[in-house]
Amino acid sequence: MKNVVKAGIFGVCIGDALGVPVEFKKREDLKTYPVTGYLEYMSWNQPKGTWSDDSSLTLCLADELTKGYDLEKIGQSFVKWNKYGHWTAHGRLFDIGGTTRHSIARLIKGESARFSGNIFEEDNGNGSLMRILPLAFYFKDEENIEKLYQIVKEVSSITHGHFRSVFACFIYVIFAIELIKGKDKKEAYNHVQKTALKYAEIQGFNPNEIQLFEKVLRNDISRYSEDEIRGSGYVLHSLEASLWCFLNTENYSEAVLKAVNLGEDTDTTGAITGGIAGIYYGFENIPDEWIAELVRKEDIELLCEKLENKLMK
Ligand SMILES: [Mg+2]
Asked: Is 95 marked as a binding-site residue?
């Protein structure tokens, strides 16, 4: 598939940038004044087209993958983001989640990326799900599901090491891989449900944890009503919301706007939805003006080309 890295990465960054100005807004307010394109200032006082931590950490991961897979180097690039504004829209960070901040603090003190993450149940924000997409490009041809799971687990666990976060990332990555392979939406979704449930059974994962994924894995998430979908910062809500938005819309802009207009953690729901919608509908389906006004679009484009070239070798 041509430009698939570019489609996915721009998909994340634009979904993020659409959500940044309205982060924390309630759904009922967004029903009155829905987001239909880039806004400016408001929640974070940032100019139009500014993306946040979701995109920064996605770009850090993508950038490291252009040099090969090295967990410690990925962790160090997160440190560079945190300390020096590496891969930020305007040279400095303006948004960071608590779990990510604590984990990066451990990396700064010299902890290995294997042990830096938080591992408790309350550490299941969407902070690793929002940055995991580049793994789908890099490991799209990996046929060993065990190996794929372990990689997703270690990359999520740099910050988010609880099973729920890891398994949410795993579901998202295997879904994205199916879309990269050109599968139809429904076909990809059915495949993911079967693969994830089978893998959970073989591994003997805690059934109580797997039960929490019931809406996504055992039922059809697209059939829930909007009232049953939350746009909060909880990883399970973000996974459900992004799949729901993607499966219930017909193009990139509809999908990301639906995500942002769910309210609450608008930038992250936008980013996670935008990644898969970008891959599925292609770069050409992303509105030109959103690409044109995205901050650092040239740098992002160069990075995508670098990763695309690396993957073709
Ligand atoms: Mg953000």
From this structure: no
**Helix intervals (H) in 20-70:** 27-32, 53-65
Rounded distance between C-alpha atoms, residue 313 and residue 310, angstroms: 6
The answer to whether the annotation marks 267 as part of a ligand binding site is: yes
Question: What are the structural domain ranges in the chain?
Answer: 4-312
172 CA to centre of ligand 1 in angstroms: 18
**305-311 long-range contacts, CB within 8 A, separation 24+:** 305/6, 306/63, 306/66, 307/5, 307/9, 307/62, 307/65, 307/66, 307/134, 307/137, 307/138, 308/3, 308/4, 308/5, 308/6, 310/65, 310/66, 311/5, 311/137, 311/138, 311/140
- The architecture of the domain spanning 4-312 is Orthogonal Bundle (1.10)
Determine whether the annotation assigns residue 55 to a binding site: no
Å from CA of 295 to ligand 1 middle: 15
pLDDT at 2 over 80: no
pTM for the model stands at 0.98
Strand, helix or coil for residue 28: helix
Q: Which two tokens stand for residue 221?
A: 């998430």
Tens of pLDDT, residue by residue over 261-287, are 999 999 999 999 999 999 999 999 999
